[in-house]
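WARN no homologs supplied; continuing
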Amino acid sequence: MIKLDLAKELNSNAYPGRGIVIGKSECGKYAVTGYFIMGRSENSRNRVFVEDGGGIRTQAFDPSKLSDPHLIIYAPVRVLGNKLIVTNGDQTDTIYELMDKQFTFEQALRTREFEDDAPNYTPRISGILRFEENGFNYAMSILKSANGNPDSCQRHTFTYTDPVAGEGHFIHTYMGDGNPLPSFEGEPKLVGISGNIDEFTDMLWNNLNEDNKVSLFVRYVNIEDGSVETRIVNKNN
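OK structure emitted
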């Protein structure tokens, strides 16, 4: 698989929707996670990320303009023991609650499917990082309709052990803008990971479409001592 330039992947797509990137820093010291949201409607754009109990949640920037919280207000990131969960919807809570009852990542997601936002049927994308004494591994999942047919849910999980320094994987909800919005296709994209947390955050934010970007979360976890650095960028301040 060809390693792609993440900046080019972002700036060449006006509307990737919501996206997750997970990998290992170039120096090999950090597990890297990024999650962004975008929006086309006033309701979708009226959001910010706020920290919440080791993770984050979305909330309305201007509560008076919130017309429908369904599918836009949720906790994208939660921490469960040695696991970091990141998703594009309330399936974060499903994964958290069922894994706390000893279900696997895949088993938890079998209880869910794509979003009920016809005609888009937006995929549910999810990621999980597991930290162990000798490093970390991660997995990504996508739940999507069968080429826009809501009668069939297609479930794909991709697992990555012994991540390579300077590499990661990127999955997002849409191939681009459109009506209906075309769902992501294929397996997560192999992308390069470089820079410290501030450089990586700036690269992501600066290459997202200026009109459509809403919020960005980035976390670097020190693999050796477990210390955490987090950055949150909101277009609405």
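The mean pLDDT is 97.
OK
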